[in-house]
Amino acid sequence: MKRRTLLGALAAAAGVAVPFAGGWRGSTSTGLLLPSRRPLPPPFAVPLPIPPVLRPVRTDADGEHYEVVQRVARAEILPGVATEIWGYNGSFPGPTIVSRSGRPIVVRHRNELPVPTVAHLHGGRTPAASDGYPTDLLLPAGGGGDHAAHMPGMFDEHAVIRTGEREYRYPMRQPAGTLWYHDHRMDFTGPSVWRGLAGFHLVTDAAEDEVPLPRGGRDLPLMLVDRSFGPDGELLYPSLDPALVRPGVRDGFGAGVLGDVILVNGAPWPVAEVDGARYRLRLLNASNACRYRLVLDPPPPGGGGFVQVGADGGLLERPVRHDAVELAPAQRFDVVVDFGRYRTGQEVTVLNAFGAGGTARVMRFRVVRAAADDTAVPATLPGEPGLTAGLAAGRGVPARTMRFRHDVIGGRPGWTVNGVPFAPDAVHARVGRGAVEVWRLTSDFHHPVHLHGATFRVLARSNSGPGAYDAGWRDTLDLRPAEQATIVARFGEEPGRYVMHCHNLEHEDMAMMGNVVVT
Ligand code: C2O
Ligand code: CU
Ligand code: CU
Known about the structure:
mainly beta, 3 domains, binds copper (II) ion
């Protein structure tokens, strides 16, 4: 395979150059807009859905057992129109799993879709065998041909392939936090997630119980995605092969697929009626490539409408007030918004300052009644304290550099890490169990860099300290064009091979992924 850096190097040199035909939406997201081909629904007309919480089917010595069936279903996403989706238990988002720190769970997935799948718990501290390695395929229960034959050059002798059903075992040895699960099949994560294979997984713990944060009906998981719809309400996606047997997207979309309709929990620009009280909003950007900058319109008197209490890896050590929140794909921000700072009857719209037209708005809250509120955001929170670079081997000197950039792979445009396209046997790093390492990450365009099997803190961005949105433990970094970030990562205790990758799902599918082997 011939690998040259051509467009990547040119683009990096030019700053925000746009090397592909069609034009990427330049400064805020790296990707190309796929316009819908039907009139879009009016905003703020559909009530905000909350995904159902999945009940365990039984509990035994191995923990709580859950069952999920991945299947084709029809959903009313646009009012009055049926849209075919791929859903966990036939719903999009999938059901929410709520688990308790320290209590293991077992999730049995059954694949009734026409293609292989891989379930990954994003943010889970999971042994490699259950982490959803991209070639550990779950083949369709109904038979779906020999998909391994359709993975040219990607035969993986270590892959664990099952047919129909398999169990994923999650020890849940991790603090309270907002996780999510989604498909992770090699080369096809983008189209599979776009079709609906994503859901929340929330972890609770005793330390969080002690904090008087909003809960119950005032604790809202909010999954943000952008999608585009065809003439009959079908989800559009620019796959070369709609059957998802051969990988790839049409020219230009390799930079990322951007939609023109924002869905929150699967509903277009929904509206939620709220009490005049504090709410915990668990924001998840589950988009393929879209970045968001969320603001409240109007802001509450005095500003600081978003009080961030958590990030990817759980609660912060202390809250951070924001007027806006920026989320790259796969990132989570837990924020508290106090609707008691608004008048009863007031409408509060969540706008996306990175969007344009329809993508410039996200959802609306309508403050419908005054209400008692005994919640609070204390000045200190039980988040795990940060790591300092001094704790790392080499005392802050980066142990490794990972360069995320555009590349040419076998004569086709693609994306690589350190010039090496993903292959199951291409190892980007070997680290010791529980190791603490400082890494330097560099980019040409936007690359939301995600590490499996590790959590990290941001130490620096280019020549300054961490950014306004870097607080807390993260598993995904919003790496911006021509940026250099320094992180200190703590790797898990479980040996095995894990992936790290760009969470722009088109970049991921086009080889921007590497192996980190924990030894
Ligand atoms: Cu959201 Cu490799 O993961
Ligand atoms: Cu992940
Ligand atoms: Cu990328």
